[in-house]
Amino acid sequence: MFRKILIITCWTIFLLTSCKKGSNSELLKPDYLIFGHFYGECTGERCIEIFKLEQDKLFEDNRDQYPGSNDFYSGKFVQLSQQEFTITNDLINYFPRDLLDEKGAVIGQPDAGDWGGLYIEYKFLGVRKFWLLDQMKSNVPLKYHNFIDKVNEKIAQLK
Questions:
Q1: 2 in a domain, yes or no?
Q2: 110 alpha-carbon distance from chain centroid
Q3: pLDDT of residue 126
Q4: Distance, CA of 50 to CA of 61 (rounded, Å)
Q5: pLDDT tens digits along 40-57
Q6: Surface-to-core class of residue 110, CB atoms within 10 Å of its CB (0-12 exposed, 13-18 middle, 19+ buried)
Q7: Which of 135, 131, 158, 151 is nearest to 58 (CA)?
Q8: What CATH number is given to the structural domain containing 41?
């Protein structure tokens, strides 16, 4: 009898601890993640840099259009090298899950004072969402600061 109770208890503990609700595992393999920065009061090709990260490829947009807050970015993406993909392939690990719960597409005041903004787009299982994040981190919740830093770091490494 003791053995049966022990086995049932072990199985119950195993089942309860093996199913973690709210896991980030689905964030590890989105269909794609588009990320980039934009600056309005700026000249030159480096003012708008937008990239598309897929499972095993990285693309760069060569349209360099200033993103709007009303619709998804419409880029013309060209594939980059495997070395450049390697620089960015871990970016999804820093993606803040809380972004998926945001009600609006604009967080802070992106590029309001010529300090720029970030464009982020996430697609998973056919669901697309996008956000414009302020580069001035004091205008953005603390929970997004690390991700903002990582996006900027990856863009700088790609230059």
A1: no
A2: 16
A3: 86
A4: 6
A5: 888 777 899 999 999 999
A6: buried
A7: 158
A8: 3.30.1560
Question: Residue 93 corresponds to which tokens in the numbers above?
Answer: 């690990």
With residue 155 as reference, give the H or E element that holds it. helix 145-158
Sign of CA dihedral 144, 150, 154, 157: positive
State phi, psi for 135 to the nearest 5 degrees.
Answer: -80, -20
Between vectors from CA 133 to CA 128 and to CA 41, what angle results, nearest 5°?
120
- Banded pLDDT at 159 (limits 50, 70, 90): confident
**47 in a structural domain:** yes
Q: What is the DSSP string of 37-86?
A: EE-SS--SGGGEEEEEE-SS-EEEESS-PPPPSSS-----EEE--HHHHH
Count the Cβ atoms, other than its own, within 10 Å of residue 83. Answer: 8
Residue 73 resides in a domain:
yes
The length of the chain is: 159
pTM for the model:
0.81
Enclosing domain of residue 136: 25-158
